[in-house]
Structures are given as structure tokens and as C-alpha cells.
Amino acid sequence: MTKRKMYVRMITASLIRRRSRMLVALLAIAIGATILSGLVTIYYDVPRQMGAQFRNYGANMILTAPEGSFRREEMEAGLAIVTPADLVGATPFRYETVRIHEQPVMAAGTDMESVKKTSPYWLIDGEWPEKNEEILIGENIAENLNLKLGTTVTLNFTPENTAETLLDNTLDFTVKGILSTGGSEEDYVYIPMEDLEALTGISGEIDVAEVSISSTADGLNNYMEQINTQIPSVHARLVKRVTASETTVLSKLQALVLLVTVVVLALTMICVATTMTAVVTERRREIGLRKAIGASDASILQEFMGEGMLLGGFGGILGSGLGFAFAQFVSVHVFSSTITLRPLLVPITILVSIVITGIACLLPIKSATKVDPALVLKGE
Amino acid sequence: MSLLELKNVYKIYGDLHALDDVSLKVEKGEWLAIMGPSGSGKSTMMNIIGCMDKPSKGEVLLDGVNIAVESAKNLTNIRRDKIGLIFQQFHLVNYLTAVENVMLAQYYHSIPDEKEALEALERVGLADRAKHLPSQLSGGEQQRVCVARALINHPEIILADEPTGNLDDANEEIVVELFRKLHEEGTTLIVVTHDPEVAETAQRMVVLRNGKISKETVNEHFTGHIRFH
Questions:
Q1: Chain B partners within 8 Å of A14 (Cβ)
Q2: What band does B30 get if pLDDT is binned at 50, 70 and 90?
Q3: CATH number at residue B46
Q4: Among A194, A253, A340, B207, which has the minimal tally of Cβ within 10 Å of its Cβ?
Q5: pLDDT in tens, B69-84
């Protein structure tokens, strides 16, 4: 048998045959690794989770044309630059002045399904329009023109520079919902884009696109620059009040989680060190015996460190699994969404556990090798 | 040249002279018993001979090397290569089996050899208990594992500190019989004991009192067999 085989045999025998003792140490390491891996997972997932929460407050990027309007294909080319996983939604708007009961009103043609994603805070009395010739009316207009849910309204459109009314510029709509936002949206009527295009006879034109992207401030800036560079006919800009507050809140939240992680890491190290000190101290007599039969200090250090680091490895494996479960639990209960496993975190957690356990073992073992075998073996 | 020679050895703790000008020679292949009451200096002498302690004054020559002036590291190497230790409390590693405990001494000495370790256990009559943990062995069996561990590396001296102190008569006889066989094979034995029956089995006996050798007797009727009174 080689020395290495005997070394492995001794270490595994110690872990397996002293399992009740080792279980306590393993538990301490595994709990530390669990909290550490869980908090790090949360730390890295907070921007995504909070980003998703922030998306409830509306779009964070606006696409316009440098002059006039731009084409739908240009909007889509701009959106293609954004990673699909980051893109929460994009809503095109085209604004035209129409008349209801001979009163001029600003009508916005849009895609209702997209609006739900980019402006989830819109409060609708009634229902969202689902098909053509259904209209959503801003609360102010509904009040001014005394429009009720379910009634039919006629929209008239007169093209600019055209004196006479065209035959095909009138469409009837059913009022499906009354919109209240507390903002300027209450002064508009919203109709499907196809209906506005039918009214105006011009299709594919967009005045503004509101885009909601789940990303960091740097990521958003990067997307903005890329769109502006690659598609000159579209001008992208960030909604500063949203992105700035998002960045501030996120950085504070991440700093908090980081601080908690560091404190927990320190406490974990103390806990593991205390446990390992107890484990090593109770084996002083064994260390004395090994010295008496000829073990060098280096050899004892090697054997006990081997045990400690193996234990750290097992604790790390357990901790990375349990840490993910812990992070998942927190994510589901706090952010109401699941998280995905970061594979790199598994080897990192195992490595950190091994290193921490190694450091925690080093001092008590070094101190234990100083024992006088004669005294220890006499039971003193 | 004697295998072991103590020349005017002192061990002083403050005002206490645990060993006080002790001189002693042990020849190769000799079986020596060291007796004395508690506090007479037996354990101190044992620790010094066993390279686990150094004298305050004097020379301790083991195979011609003065171990009194060697570094701790060298003392560990000398202990590993030349001395086999047997303790009253057995001191086996409790999570290693009997054969693994024997192999532990080989591990620190050279290369572990399970076959050789099993043969050593066979010599002490424990071949069938090789895979048992110390907790599954009786006191006598544990002491025999300890003997197997002490002899596995063919040491110059086997140093036994109260080897039968925790054993009943039957096991005491077994252990002494093992010593007799080792002596026959030429192993040098130094046995510290307070048991006159065990001491009388040796070729020579020295009695320590207050750190000095107070009496030295050569066993003229030496047989190596224990005689219970």
C-alpha cells in the first residue's frame, strides 16, 4: 500500500467512523455555505428581480425620429439590438388629431397588448380593447364629452391641407374602457394602430415607441448607443427619472445585500473556526500519540488539514444546493418570481468552503501540534 | 558499546529533582525492568529514554548518539526509527481498525504494508481481530495491538510504560509472554512497572527512589516467564 492510499484511508476512516462528531462540523460548514451561496445568488439576482419590479413603473427608453416620424421596420430593427431576454415590451404610438362630436381630440394609435407590458400601471375602468373598432378613452375626455362605457363614438379625421372631408375618414368605435393614470394619458383616446392607419390612409408610420428593458444603467446606455449608431433614422433616449431612480435604489439594495453577505461570511468563519477548534482540541491525545510514534508536525498538519478540507468540500457541495433553495425561497416570497441557477457559483461555493475550513483548521491544528506527547499520553 | 547509556542524568523542575544523577547502561538484547513508587522518577526516565523529553544535565547515549542535545525534529526521527512505545492506556486511534493502527506506525516510519501488519497481529494472536475497532476489543487485545504496533518497525528498543497496569492476570501473562518471545528474538526491552511479578520476569531490575537508583538486581533465575505469587 502506498503512503497516499494510507493517507486517504485514514482521512475517510476519520470522517466515516467519527460521523456523529463530523456531522456537527459538516452542519456548521454547510449552513455557512448555504447562507453564503444563497446571499450571493440573491446579490446577483437583485438587479434582475428589481428591474422586473421597476418595469411596472413604465418604459425606460423612448424611440423617436430625429425629425417627424419613423417606420415600424426601423423600430423593429432597433429592438432587434436588445437581447430578447431583456426586452420586456415595446409599444409604438402614432398621434393624430381627430374629431369626436366635432370636438378636436388627440387620438393615439397603438398596440394594446404591448401597452399592457410597457404601461402596466394604466388603470382601466371596463376592459382593454381587444379588436379593431374598440376604443380606450382617457378619463378627462370621457368626462368632457360625456362618453360612457359601451356607447358608440364616431371619429372623424381630416387630413392636413385638405379642405373637404373625405368619405373614408370616419370610423365608429365602441367604448370598451376608460383610462385613468393621473397623467397626460387621460387627455387622449387610444385606438388600435390599424384603425388609425385606416382613418388616415397612411400605414407603418410611428411617432414614438415606448420601450421597457430589464437591464442595468450601463446596459441601457449601451443599448441606447447601439441603436443610435446603427439606426440613424431612430433616436433612442432613456427616461431619466426612471433609470436614475432605478440605479439609485438598486445600488443601495445591492450594497445592503453585500454588507449582509460580508457580515454573514465573517460570522460563518467564526462559527466554523470555533467548531473546528473544538473538533481538533478533542483530538489532542490522538495528535500526541501520532507524535509519539514518529509523526512530524508537517505530517499531522497535512492529515488534519486533509480531513478539514474534505469536510469543507462536502459542506460546500451541500451548501451550494441548499443555498440555491434558500435563494429560490427568498425570491419566490419576496419578489414573487423564480431564479435560475448560476452554475459558476457551485464550484466557487465549494472552493470558498474548502478555503474557509482550511483557514479555520489551520490555527487549532498548528497549536495542537505543539502538544507534548509525554504529557498528553499521561492524560495531563 | 552499550545500546543505551545514561551518564549522570538530572531532570530538575524548580526545586524538585525528578532524576538526580542517574547513570545506567542497557546492553543490546537486554530485558530491563524499572521499578519504583509513584513520583520516584520512573516516567521522567521513560520520557527521556523515549526521546519525548530532555534531561536538564547529563548525557543519554542511544546507539552512540547523545539524544540529550538533539533537536525536537531529530528526536522525533530517532523515536520513529529506534523506539517502539507501549503505554498503560494502550492509546490506539479509536477510528482505525487494529490493522490500521499497526499500519499507522509503518506510515510514519516508511511504507504501510498491510500484509506485514497482519503478520504482526498474528504474532500477538490477533489475526482474527484485525478488522475490529479498538472499542470492539478487550483491554488485553488492545494492549496486544499496541505491542504489534511497537514491534512493526523492528525498533532497537521496546519501551513499555506500565504495560500490564490495566490488565487482568490472564492478559498480563499473554503480554509478558510476548515480551519473552521478543527478548528471545534479540529485542531490547525496557519495562517500567510497579508490579513486582512483572519486574521479576526481566533479566535485570533497577529500583528508583526520589530520582536516584536505589537498588539494582540481576535476576539469577531468569526464565522470562511470569510467576504469580
A1: 95
A2: very high
A3: 3.40.50.300
A4: A340
A5: 999 889 999 999 999 9
